[in-house]
Amino acid sequence: MPKSVIVDVTGMHCNGCETIIEEAVASIEGIQSVKANYRSGTVKVVYDADKTSLTAIQQTISSKGF
Questions:
Q1: Which run of H or of E encompasses 8?
Q2: Cα–Cα distance between 52 and 19 in angstroms, integer?
Q3: Does residue 2 sit in helix, strand or coil?
Q4: Which residues lie closer than 8 Å to 16 by C-beta, 6 or more apart?
Q5: Would you tell me how many other CB atoms lie within 10 Å of the CB of residue 65?
Q6: Pairing of strands 31-37, 42-48
Q7: Which residues pair with 43 in a beta bridge?
Q8: Where would I find the H helices in 1-66?
Q9: Could you report the per-residue pLDDT of 3-57, keeping only the tens digit for each?
Q10: Buried b vs exposed e over 23-56: b needs ≥16 C-beta within 10 Å?
Q11: Separation of alpha carbons 36 and 15, rounded Å
Q12: For the whole prediction, is pTM greater than 0.85?
């Protein structure tokens, strides 16, 4: 069953930041959709909880410097 979560992210300041985060998170197995919004400082993710976790998503975002 898919889970939907909105992750608060600090440090995004442009569309390029959104793309970096979206591409990184999308590469995780089990991710169904990801949409970053630098204006609101959020990333909406829909994922399969059997294949990945919120912690893995947050670590991936952090690994990109956010």
A1: strand 2-8
A2: 21
A3: strand
A4: none
A5: 9
A6: antiparallel
A7: 7, 36
A8: 15-26, 54-63
A9: 999 999 999 999 999 999 999 999 999 999 999 999 999 999 999 999 999 999 9
A10: ebbeebebbeebebebeeeebebebeeeebeeeb
A11: 9
A12: yes
